[in-house]
Amino acid sequence: MIVSICVVTYNSGSTVTDMLRSVYLHKGDYELQVFVCDNASDDGTPDAVRKAFPDVTVIENGTNYGFGHGQNACLPYLRSDYHFIVNPDIIVNSDIFGDMARYMEEHKDIVMAVPTYLSADGEMQFTPKLAPKVRYMMGGRFERFGGVFRKWRSEYTMRDDPPKDTVDIGFCSGCFMAVRTDVFKKMGGFDERYFLYNEDADITRMAQRYGRTVYAPQFSVTHLWERAYMRKHKYFFIQIESLLKYLWKWRMGGKYAKSLHRSRS
To answer: Does residue 260 lie in a domain region?
Structure first.
């Protein structure tokens, strides 16, 4: 079995090395391809990764065209059976790559899966699991005010009744995602029209043409979560733009959805 991992970085040198260290510490008995696709960092991230992890393939993108574009840069080099999209702020505490790959091997109908995300203190994080809607975005932005905003956010993340077993979901978060490599290639990777936000919801929906997309709570990773759009207005506006692109692409139940991004497979 061959497993691949791709991490997109942008001035992430202080976190990605910790993430990679945890990956190699818990690696199981399988071939592992690791890619770091750097989106024009100016903090020396590529050199830091090469120095600490000479077996990692570093791909330097001269311009930051966004998360999806960065992830797609590794597509031509993938030889794996299972591919993992991983954020630099992830820490793994077990051989989750081997465990999830074997689980998907046993369940042939699953094409994409995400684990439970835990904070540094072990508390469960509640990330989106339903397909995006305007009210869900508003709930995430204003849930601190309670009321209907908290209700919308809770619905979006299944917070009030978290699944205890594997369940089909409409949104697999890109902070840590497993996907069958052949399916990832058939889709042409991420739709690069999204710069940031909702590209993971979009690829989840594309993956559902090939099989099930699930939340598998029996697996977990630590996610040092930073909700940037909650702190800076520019990220909130990027999120709005991405949501509009998603809603336009998938209007009428996807009847008019057309993937205009170029396949690199």
So the answer is: no
